[in-house]
């Protein structure tokens, strides 16, 4: 039985307050102050919330009711459905999805069997936490398979682009890094916190996070992590395709410059020094254009960089030709 000597820990101000004092300050009745083990989940949540509790720690061994068992089973089933939906939405291949669902259904069935025979809230909480954890692990493992598969597809796509080997390696390394980072985020801590805290946390509406820091603690986290991954690899592939266009633009600029300077060799009314200067100016404009091409962040910027560079080269050559025509 929970008595007045039990405590709430982790108050907002860092203090430790006797449970009975929390009830009194919260406006609870004398019966609730004395008969602590008789309070309902709603009453416990309200009382604790009024004290801004962020963590609860106490031993408990309350008898579990049929209603609590039914509610726990329902929550586990909902958790299973939620995780399955996430896996469907990330478009797992049929065999992997089927296997994951079968494994999760088995976990649900085992949990229901254990719930039927459990006697205390402590046992019930442990069964539910373990079932959720196992379901989540299955979801994470299946998603890791998908992440690895998508990563390989993107790497293949990059390997087939018109890029230098060094460029290909750079983008492939980025994809590989995204896969590794994502799969690390999908790793769920293998140990479950067995300290008697999660029972009251569930009353407070606080879902215990079993995942590693910045990792997975809920099915929705799996979806969020996978979405972030696909966004990252799509951006990398987009950058790779933009690099292909940059390579083509650079080649086009070089050919344009080579063709543009041909008339310089036919000029006779300007000095050799002036011709050489014009040729050097064209080379400088090519270099400047290449820098602009390299720095382009989009197809539109790239198109503009190439056009500007070609215009600058034309201006240099036109100036030399005009000078020659004027006999300068």
Summarize the structure.
The chain is an all-alpha fold and 328 residues long. It contains 11 helices and 2 strands.
Name some characteristics of this structure:
328 residues; mainly alpha; 3 domains; two-stranded antiparallel ribbon; 70% helix; 1% strand; disordered N terminus
Strand content: under 5%
What share of residues is helical? 55-70%
Low-confidence stretches: 1-41, 51-60, 189-214
Please give the radius of gyration in angstroms. Answer: 34 Å
H-E string: EEHHHHHHHHHHH
Please give a structural write-up.
It is a single chain. The protein is an all-alpha fold and 328 residues long. It has three domains: 7-50, no CATH class; 66-195 and 205-236, no CATH class; 261-325, no CATH class. It has eleven helices and two strands. The chain has a two-stranded antiparallel sheet. Helix 4 packs antiparallel against helix 5 (94-117) and helix 4 (66-89) runs parallel beside helix 6.
Question: What is the topology?
Answer:
Elements: E1 7-8, E2 17-18, H1 19-25, H2 30-34, H3 41-50, H4 66-89, H5 94-117, H6 121-159, H7 165-185, H8 198-203, H9 219-260, H10 272-295, H11 299-325
Antiparallel strand pairs: 1-2
Helix pairs in contact: 4-5, 4-6, 4-9, 5-6, 6-7, 6-9, 7-9, 9-10, 9-11, 10-11
